[in-house]
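lol ok so funny story. i was supposed to be doing the assay writeup but got distracted and ended up predicting the structure for this chain instead. priorities right. anyway since i did it might as well share w the group, maybe its usefull for someone
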Amino acid sequence: MTTQETVHIPTRSKRVFIGEEFDLKKWEDLEPLFENLKTRKINSAEDLKQWFSDRSEIESYLSENFAWRYIRQTCDTANTSLISALQFFIAEIQPKLAEYGNALDKKVVDSPYLDQLTAPGFAITLRSMKKAIEIFRDENIPLITEMQTEERHYGAIAGAMTVTLDGEEMTLQKAADRLQSTDRTIREEAWRAISGRRYEDHGKLDDLLNKLVTLRNQVGKNAGFDNYRDYMFAAMGRFDYTPEDCFNFHGSVKKAVVPLLNDMASGRKDALKVEQLRPWDTKVDPKGLPPLKPFSTGEELLDKTIRCFSRLDPFLGDCLRIMKTMKHLDLESRKGKAPGGYNYPLDEIGVPFIFMNATSNLRDMVTLLHEGGHAVHSLVTRDLALNAFKHTPSEVAELASMSMELITMDFWDEFFENENDLKRAKIQHLESIIETLPWVATVDKFQHWMYENPQHTPEQRTDAWVRIYEEFTDTMMDWSGIENFKKYLWQRQLHIYEVPFYYIEYGIAQLGAIGVWKNYRQDPAKGLKGYLDALKLGYTATIGDIYQAANIPFDFSEQHISDLMQFVRNELEELKK
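and the output, tada:
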């Protein structure tokens, strides 16, 4: 059977409020619709429900319209018309949406019929609305527009970075594959080329972050906060934990996870039989085996992932088959693409788009499993009543993706026919989880420092980075002669530039994902059901309640993290037998 014969392509709901033929060309096309919502009389609970439905319809349209502009621009960062199309929305549409959004939120919060909206999710949506009203300031609209414009520059700078190795110009992602070479000279050459190319632009990236920190600090001050960090906790709707909880996470990771890094680094140094462990020694197989190659092309990667998902549950495979049929994936690395990877929800059609920069390595395979988890999340929430119900906080969104990486592991033989390669892949992935938690703590603590000290100089920033980095890394690595590259490791993390403070979620969700995997290990059917039950809630419950639906705790304590790390260690020991 062909894909087209086996897959049902979803259709979007009809546009009743904005009309089937609506096409955004300029702000004046939208203004009458927002004026309707702003001035409409609401005389009953039914009127209020209809108002919510109409607002959701226009928000879905605009969200998807922006999404396609962003997707197309990141797929081709050098295309000036695509850049202009994205910039038009950021500069001409979003500022006015912010003004109307605040007015519409106020209209709803003041409605006498509010307490009659008892369907699951309204309470969560309303608390977000109330917080948005509380922090909204007219004077921040142009600042946020300027910030969004500046943030786009990071992708353009990073997307233009290439290196030439053996006469071939290639992206940094492709060059990084050489870090798995068993030839140490090749690894060092690639590492120095990549790091040197990033360092060439460290001044540009420092200047860009200086602008962003200044703008962001002003936004926080305008909204009445001591700093941008506190503003962002409110803006991101972090109702269920505090900065103090983040500091507890940092401390727990330092005590429960960092010692494991030292054990791993010591074992790697001994296995490689090197006098000093260097940064270009971290990706190679410690036994001198060639790099794992789970696929050759983007199409092969996708087809194998579909089979992997289908064996876990046929519905999960169908999610990716739908996306393949609709051409909602751009997987392979190429010059001119923005760095990184993402799953972008498309709120009208309900079928997301996956973007990534695959070459042929294990990390790329895991990235598609990860983004595929996000895609499943988008598809299981597509029929929730309101747009607001579909957009979960990142602590939940990343739970969907990180859990998928782990609960598919029983089916990774789709990528590795050789049993020893399969074990190697699993070991490498589990060890990467142990490495991820300290890196998350490093990036998060660094961001707290930056915005608690917004007047800092670039030199103070690099000093702070090195100090924090050394808290959460192993003590075996030799950086002599390449200290300048170490000072700017943070510049490779796009979140610091494009989505500030969006990073601790990966750590929180990683803990949750290990919990989901532990449940799946104990009872596959029950574990998978809990995972999907949690995802289907969308954002109609608190983070704690969503985690509870998956039968996992929402807990950052040292004891809990230690227990999870022991589970991971036990799994690693079994694989290494």
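Strands lie at 162-165, 168-171, 329-332, 342-344, 353-358. The CA atoms of residues 14 and 416 lie 44 Å apart.
back to the writeup now i swear
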